Structures are given as structure tokens and as C-alpha cells.
Amino acid sequence: MKRAAVSAVVALLLGNAAVARADDDWQAGGGAKWQTMLAAARQEGKVVVAGTTKIGEPVQTAFKRDTGIDVEYLNLFSSELFARASREYKSGQVTLDAVFMGANGLPLALAGYMEPLVPRLMLPGAADPAKWVDGKMKFIDAAGTYMFVSSLAVSSWVLIDKDEVQPGALTGWQDLLKPEYTGKIAIYDPHVAGIGANMAVFLAGTLGMDYVKKLYVDQHPKISRDGRQIAEWVGRGVYPIAVAALSEDVELYQNAGIKNFGEVMMTDAPGLLLGGYALHIPKGAPHPNAATIFANWLVSRPGQEIYSRVEGSPSRRTDVHVASIPDYLYPKPGTTYVDGYEEKYLLAKRPPLQKAVIDLLDASN
User: With 50 as the cut, is the pLDDT of residue 191 above it?
Assistant: First the structure.
């Protein structure tokens, strides 16, 4: 009998983010200049890091272990973080040294409130092109220097109940429009920023608004704003198909005993890649040397092992592979993807498509 995850098990899984191993070689090649910077950073006493992610305690522990520098971590809601950063950057009264922010931080980068990150990467093993997928680091901003994105995950997979949907029954997005799946699909609400909106925009851009209408309206899907509920519905067979499910919710239920999940990659359109939160250093950071040390550490192998493991998203570093991250999230070499986390897409392509999707759904209610 299918069963929901036991809350105690879920809580345990959430609390067991492992700490990456110490790596004595990550500072290799830094030389005297690096040691001088490290000493100055230790004199500053700490680095103040802000974000909307759960990386706080693991990063604090590992960074202290590897550098001897304390991390003061501020875990804020996305809107709260953006408001605080905007206020501080514009007033020049900056209290933050390093910030993990999503695409909503792009206007702050374009307005000139961030320091170029690349010149701060002093360690040869940090910015070495050979260490990164496609031979380069990734940034949200087109200038390629302010908002560093360390991970990209495939987000266009479809979750199925393997007991109800037979292997091979779904191979492309058009298959979701079959009459037998009417009323049997759960979808994360496109009105909500995040995976729901991103998936709807992706489908509108690759398959057209007519497809969006057929899937989101004519197929009478169940729309939800609760990712865990969507995963549970599929696990219990209430809705055997889900679009825009969240991998962390799927993995929680899977680890707690739900074994009928299947992840399907559609073959009739490019996949969608979405990034984790982007790291930036604001101008006027109060602990500039510690901020530089933090940036180099985060980009290095031990930093990426920690960040990737806790965020549950594949690092773009070629020497980092976290076994706990499911294979379906890793981009496959030779496969075509839409990059949903770069400036042109975010500023030019996404806004009109998102408006069109919302207008369509609102008009259909």
C-alpha cells in the first residue's frame, strides 16, 4: 500500500546535510599574495553572508574549518533580502559582504551596485576554465562578472506514478494532451515565482501558447502552490502525473519509502536548465578581504561540494559530483537545453511570455 512520508523521517532527512571533506589542496598556487589576503581577512574577524537558502550552518562550519574565519549568516525571505540589499546598496550603508540572490538581483547588478567577482578569484584552481562545464564559469549578467551561478539543474522532467503510467507511455510533451490524462495531471501554479512560473514560460516559449492552453486549461489539471502536496499526490496515485514538481520534495518522499516515482525526460523539445542562487559581492562590503576569501572558497572544490550537497543541485565544477543528487537533475552532454538563468532570457524573453500565460489562465477562470 502506498504511504505518505513519515514526518519524523522527513525531519531527519532535512537535518542531515553532510559536511564535505577538508581539502588541503584547494588553496594551492595562492602564494604570498593569498596568504597576505587570508591574514587580513582573519583580522577583519568575520564575513557577513546573506541568502534565502538553507546553506547557513554547513557553510559556517566548513568555511571556519578551512579558513579560520567566522561566517555570520542571515537567512532571509527573497523579498526581504531584495528590499534590504536595495536599501543598503542605494544608501551606501552596506552591512553585507557576500549575498546569494536569485534573478531578482539582476537590476542591482545592472545599476552598478556589485563588485566584479572574477578579479577577486586569486586561486588558480578557482577560475581555471578546465574546472568548469563548457570551459567557463557562469554568470546571470551578460557581462559575466557580477552574479556567479555555480549550479545548473535540469528542471523540465515530468514526475509520474509508475504503477499508473506505464514505461514508454510518455515520451514527449504532446503525450500529456492525450484524452486519458485529462483531469489526471497536477501542476505547480504558474502564478507563483519559481518552478511554476518558470515551467509555464518554458513551455510557452518552446511549444507555443496554444500548447499551454491545451495543457493548463483544456486538460483540467489540478493546480497547487504546495510542492510537497504535488509529490504526495503522485506518490499516492491521486494524480499520476505532475508537471513542475520539486526534486527536493520527490527525494524526501522517496527516501521515506515511496518507491513508485518515475522521472521522464521529454524528447520533443529542448530541456530547461535553472540555476541556484547567484553569489555576488556588493560595493562597500564592510569586510572586503573576508569577502574575497569567501568567494574563492565558494568557487573552489570544497566550497562547491558543500553548496551542491546542501542545495541539492549539480555543481558546474567538473571535479565535483555529489552522489546524493539524483541523476535526472544533471545536464547530459550533447543534449540541447534552454538556459533559463541568463540576462537576455530573463529580461527580454521571459516577461512577455509570463504575462501571456497569466492572462490566459486568468481569462480561463
Answer: yes
Asked if the 157-268+336-364 domain carries CATH number 3.90.1010.10, the reply is: no
pLDDT in tens, 121-154: 999 989 899 999 999 999 999 999 999 999 999 9
| Phi, psi (degrees; rounded to nearest 5) at 84 | -65, -45
Find the DSSP H helices in 54-152: 56-67, 78-91, 106-110, 124-127
For residues 236 and 4, the answer to whether their CB atoms sit within 8 Å is: yes
How many residues does this entry show for the chain?
Answer: 365
Place of cell 518558470: 198
140-161: burial string, b at 16+ Cβ within 10 Å, e else: bbeebbbbbbbbbbbbbbbbbb
pLDDT of residue 1 exceeding 60: no
Domain boundaries, the chain: 7-150+275-329, 157-268+336-364
Same fold, 7-150+275-329 and 157-268+336-364: yes
Domain 7-150+275-329: which CATH class? Answer: alpha beta
Contacting residues for 348 by C-beta, under 8 A, at least 6 apart: none
**What is the value of pTM for the model shown?**
0.89
Strands 157-161 and 261-265: antiparallel
Other CB atoms within a 10 A radius of the CB of residue 326 amount to 17
What is the reported pLDDT for 276? 85
The CA–CA distances, whole Å, from 262 to 161, 164, 238, 256, 270 equal 6, 11, 15, 15, 20
- Using only C-alpha atoms, the chain has a radius of gyration, in whole angstroms, of 21
CB atoms within 10 A of CB 347: 14
Lowest-confidence range among 19-23, 67-71, 220-224, 242-246? Answer: 19-23
Per-residue pLDDT tens for 253-284? 999 999 999 999 999 999 999 998 999 999 99
Please tell me which residue, 22 or 204, carries the higher pLDDT value: 204
